[in-house]
Design a protein that fits this description.
alpha+beta, Membrane-bound Lytic Murein Transglycosylase D, Chain A, Immunoglobulin-like, Glucose Permease (Domain IIA), five-stranded antiparallel β-sheet
Amino acid sequence: MRFVFRALALVSLCAFALLLAPHVQRVDAAPPSAPPDTYIVQAGDTLFSIALRYHTTVASLKQMNGLGNSDLIQTGQKLAVPSSDNSTSPTASVSASSSYIVQPGDSLYRIAMHYGTTMDALEQLNDIANPNLISAGQAIAIPNSVTVAKPGLILDPPTVRQGGTLMIRLARPDLVSVTGTFNGKTINFTRAAGYWYALAGISRCAKLGNVPVAITSTNTAGQSSTDSATVTIAATAFPVDAITLPPTKLTILQDTALINREAVQLATIVNKNTPARLWDGAFRQPLYGAITEFFGTRRSYNGGPVGACGHEGTDFGVPGGTPIYAPARGRVVFADLTQVRGNMTVIDHGVGVFSAFYHQSAILVQVGQMVDPGTLIGKVGTTGLSTGNHLHWSMWANGEYVDPLDWTRRILP
């Protein structure tokens, strides 16, 4: 236990220091070679912010989209961006590598023809019972990125980046229970329409390389079977900042007892697993505005070495009092003032997925309350260890911090 507490304290020191420092310097990576996804420009977006989000460069985005020398983009505009799928496997895929927002007049047949897929594949992937019942604004997952590890077992994606989320699907007749582990840690499986699935978050500072997946399933006849596979964890080219902090701020960050206490409290909350999935479709952003800090950003403080673990969420720099909305359906499990994170709300979305919102000036929900996407949950502030008005948005899958913006681009499960 003493080792666990020390580890939590060290991780927390890296994470919370990110809340206090000014924005100074960033380093970008080249775009991946996988086929591009489509991104819908949101209010406040710039080519620079989108490039950072997808770990690429402004020049690459301009080239991909034929923008020439123009830096102008408009809200609602569709941009080709580097795919989040990093797999090089030639195996055919049956799940999403991108998503499409249904437009007025669209039909499922038209969408299938546009993306070179079938209506059946879209219906299966999106759990669409009636293909005639799709509506404008709905997010549709487009098949293209999942590797079939063996008959009935699917890994999405087979190569997952630091801060990403792995989905494991098992589809076999008459299964009554499924259990498993990912890299030795228990993963919880949930029954869906014709298959079982589990979600595993990949730490932003996870070790790179191959990681084992082990699954045990039991059918109605009482027969058990085992499956094993390997997932590759790849590096994410997180930005790097060089930060200079005044001694007073460094002193606050050295209060390991305080930081450790809050880290343990939060870990206890987000390591629980509600059996039912409460959300549906892609997550929305809790608000739209300039992103001042991306998930996983590494930092060097006062000329020191770059930290192994980076920012644990996404920061939006917006005025105090700006409304904050629930990104997806869920149940509020924490809503109170903390010393480090300030006024904090935590939402349980089911099956081990949580979201949290820090530094609020006002909390407008109560523990136990069910919220839907778009429910007003609070207002932006600068409470806790914060030097200015902003919203910090964190997400977890199976107890690990994951990139919240990734959940706005994918539809899981």
